[in-house]
Structures are given as C-alpha cells and as structure tokens.
Task: inverse folding
DNA sequence: AACAGTTTTCCATATTATGGGAAGCAGTTT
DNA sequence: AAACTGCTTCCCATAATATGGAAAACTGTT
C-alpha cells in the first residue's frame, strides 16, 4: 500500500551514441522508445557471452536494469525465439529467429565467404586487412584482421563507417561504381569530405581516375598522414561492385612498387573464391 | 482540441503463437511488452523483403501498425544499427549490428558451413535432407532441402522443434550424446514422448541401442507412419555431437539396405567438410 | 504550379511498461 | 530435516512511456 516510485524513471537510456554530429540539439534522439533500446541492450549483453550463456541476474547486473524488467523483456524474446532459454541451466542464448532474420542480409554473408581470403592475405602481407561493403553513401567495414606490425594503425572496427572514397577499400568501392552513381555519391558527401577529411570533390575525382587507371585503389596518405592502403573491388555475377578488400599499413611498408604486388595478391585471392 | 482516442488501444498483438499447448490458460502470454513484440514484427517484415528493401508505408501496411508508431520504432532500430536506412531510396534493410549479434551464435553457423553438404546429399538421394542441432531438450532444425519426390512429407521447417529422439536426425543427436545426458533428456521428455508421440522411454532406449550398434540412427516409421529416415551425427573437435544430418522419405524409398547406403553417403559428405 | 503520396514532427492522452514487494524454487549448509 | 541463501517468477498500483491522430514538411509526378 506504500506505493512505489520508480528508482530512475526517465533514466537516460539514450545516452549512448550521438557522436555523428547530427542536427537536432536539444531534442532527445529517440523519444518514446525506451523499451526498444533496452531490448537491444539485452540482446547485446546476451550475445557477448553467448557461448557460456547468461542467467537472468547476470544480465540484469551487466545492463544495469532491474531484474523484473529484464525478466519481462527476455520472456518476450524467448517467445519470439530471438533468444533460447535452457530450462536446466537457466541460461539465455541467441535464438534461431534472430539468426534467421540476420541471414536474410546476404550482403553481410560476404563476411563468412571471404574470411579465409582475408586470413590468407593477412598471413602473406603481415599487414591489416579489411573487408568493406557499401552502405548508402558510406563504406561499412564488415570484417578485418589486424596486422602483425607493432604499430596499430586505424581503429576501423567492424561496423564502422566512413564516407565512400575515404580509405583504400572505400575508394575502391567508389571508383569502380557506375559513373552516374559516383556523381551522386560525391555530391552527397561533399560536405563531409571537406569537414571531416579536409578533402575536395575534385581531389577525389583525381583519385578515382588514378584508381581506374591502376585497376585498384592506391591511397598514399591522402586520408591519414603516414598511412597507405591498397583496395581491390569484388564484383558479383552481374558485374556490380559489392565489396572491397583492402590492406593498410604505415607509409614505409606500402610503397608504390609493393602496392602493385599487394593488389595482385588480393586479386588472386579473390579470384579463388569465385 | 478534440483529443484523440486510440483506434485500437490494447490491440491483441499477442495473438500470434500459443499453439505449443503451454499451461497458463487465461493469463495473456506476455503482458507488458507490446512494443517489443511490435519491434520484432517490424524486423521480420523488413527481413522478408531485405533484397529490395522496404519503405516506411509498406512496412506499416504489411504489419498493420500505424505509420507513426512504425516510424518511431524504426528510428530506434536504425540508431542502434539493427536496421540500415538508405536516405536516397528511403528503404530499410537489415543492419550490421543485428548481423553481428547473430554471428555470435556459432552453433547456427553450422548452417552455412554444411549448406553445400546438404545440397550434395539432396542431389544424390533426391530425398529431403535436414540439418538439426540440439537446443535444450529439443532438436532444432536449422536448415533443410526438400526432396524431389512428389510427396511432401514433413512440415519440418527451419526453426521447428521436436523432442530429442523423435525423428531420424533428432535420434542421432540423442543416441550419440554422453550416457548421463541421455538419461536426463529421456526423463525430461518422458511426458512429451507419451502425449505427443505415443512412445515410451523404453522404446526410445531400444532405438538408441540400435542406433549405436549401426553407427547411425535409422527410423522405420516409429514417429510417423510411412516415413523412414536416416540420421548421422556431426562431431566437433572435442568429439561432442553438435549437429546431425538426416534424410527422410516414404517407407518404400528407404528400406534397410538403402538406409545403409544413405548413411555412408552422409558420412562421407560430412567427412569432406572437416 | 497544383497535386498526390510519403515521411516526419508535434503533442494531449491513457495504455502500457515499470519495478518494488513478496512468493516460489533450487541448491547448500548446519 | 530444517534453516538459509541466492535466484527466478508472479503480482499489481502507479505514472512514465509509448501511442497515434492531426498536420506540417518533403518528394516526386502530372
């Protein structure tokens, strides 16, 4: 009868990402969607320890949400088979439906397909290797292997984006796209090129021309000082570019001559996958 | 100033699945979770047309939810990268985060790994082929290929479950599990065996013994009249059973002699995958 | 330029999600 | 066996959150 006030009522769940410098200053980014955010937070938590599985209280602790709330949401996720629940161990794991839905995204399946390929290239070059796909006006990294070199170069994690053209793999995606699309992309990204990367559209056009002439994208520190990269496109059956593999390292390791060799290596590894 | 009453306030979103004959009669299955259910509904809708992508109104139409609500939830999903949004075409697609989370479920990745294998077996036998994994006390189908035979046999879709031991693949999972686990599973499923499949634990023990002797599970219409099946286990590096491949067809097509051949075929195809 | 279709914002409303409390369950320890 | 401990599940009053109609802002088309 005492009634209950919520501990942290409008708790700032949204305080996660806002870094992209979008407009809308003082309007909360996603209002009216607490539970959806929370649901996703729970899924992430479970996925992080999927092999051992996670129990209710662990999940609650990890996410900082009240046990009751977690329980309620997890029950739905289990009912929808987004999660599996083992009655005996009382552990939650990723469910078949979540997997089935994700599988519909064929483009990301390239990751599995080219995993070996990346590994071979990484072994041969000892440098960092990246696999990127196009996502709207961006290049999206869907897999990468860190180089053996002592110097960590980019923080270019899976899921990270940059404007098409910025970076070797990204440039490959752009340069080998159809002309009319290239125009649209350049225009759409013009502002970001200038603000984030200190580059102009005409500079990019130069790089595109060069890439087309070479047959691969060669980035000589254009985007980040001291970092060079080589990017090679991957085509689908229709001849459209669907992804790109790139190798990046410090300038000294990737001079023009070696860039040629690396490009050939990537091409031959890609060819094996067909 | 007229105020607005919601069209369909407590709309019965939950009326989806309840068929599993669970207890709890007159208590709504998942109360207090409308938005989570809706979120999942939206994800399904988008996934269904992922190649072309879907636009807001289409999604709203397909799911029967008000545009505004859809818009709000989709915004969150995009922010969390569960979906991608193409500014130009205004289309939504599966996002990288959803894929990344699903990828943590290694067990389901068997599906990709053995896809070719299933195809080869399907081509050679012309019968239906299934790939199942263990999920708690159940066998869970994660992939299948329908046979060429004119008679559609089982509706054993991806995501469908049955108690471990019921069905050829399912029996293979059970029979080649460690003894102590087998005991636990049999006990846990005892009721279901009897109620749903009209079988006793001791009958199952007989089948297990037979399977162990043969080196594969052979189901001669024990579970469904007129349907035979052959199931072969797949082991991981530690020697634990992680999945099973099975072939099923009408009794006439799978007699004891052919079952032996099929088992050998499956085994050799699996061996190629190592 | 007018139009039709779609996307996005706004906001009053009450339905739905919330979370404290407590009852149930295991699994250990005395 | 009983008492204890930690975890899971149920209950339900409360108000914060999600809701969806209305209308504004776009977009593309005739």
Result:
């Amino acid at each position: 009868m005492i009634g209950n006030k919520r501990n942290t009522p409008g708790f700032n769940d949204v305080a996660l990402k806002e870094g992209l410098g979008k407009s809308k200053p003082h309007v909360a980014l996603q209002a009216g969607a607490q539970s959806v955010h929370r649901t996703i937070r729970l899924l992430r938590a479970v996925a992080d320890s999927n092999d051992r599985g996670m129990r209710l209280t662990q999940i609650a602790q990890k996410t900082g949400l009240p046990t009751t709330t977690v329980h309620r949401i997890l029950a739905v996720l289990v009912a929808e088979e987004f999660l599996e629940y083992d009655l005996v161990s009382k552990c939650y794991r990723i469910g078949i439906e979540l997997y089935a839905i994700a599988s519909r995204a064929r483009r990301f399946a390239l990751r599995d397909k080219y995993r070996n390929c990346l590994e071979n290239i990484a072994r041969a070059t000892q440098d960092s290797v990246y696999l990127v796909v196009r996502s709207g006006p961006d290049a999206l990294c869907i897999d990468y292997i860190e180089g053996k070199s002592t110097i960590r170069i980019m923080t270019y994690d899976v899921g990270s984006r940059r404007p098409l053209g910025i970076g070797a793999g990204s440039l490959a995606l752009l340069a080998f796209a159809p002309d009319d699309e290239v125009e649209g992309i350049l225009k759409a990204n013009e502002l970001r090129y200038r603000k984030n990367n200190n580059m102009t559209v005409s500079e990019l056009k130069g790089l595109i021309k060069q890439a087309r002439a070479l047959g691969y994208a060669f980035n000589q520190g254009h985007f980040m000082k001291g970092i060079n990269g080589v990017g090679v496109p991957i085509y689908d059956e229709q001849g459209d570019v669907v992804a790109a593999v790139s190798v990046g390292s410090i300038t000294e390791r990737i001079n023009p001559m070696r860039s040629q060799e690396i490009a050939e290596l990537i091409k031959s590894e890609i060819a094996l996958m067909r």
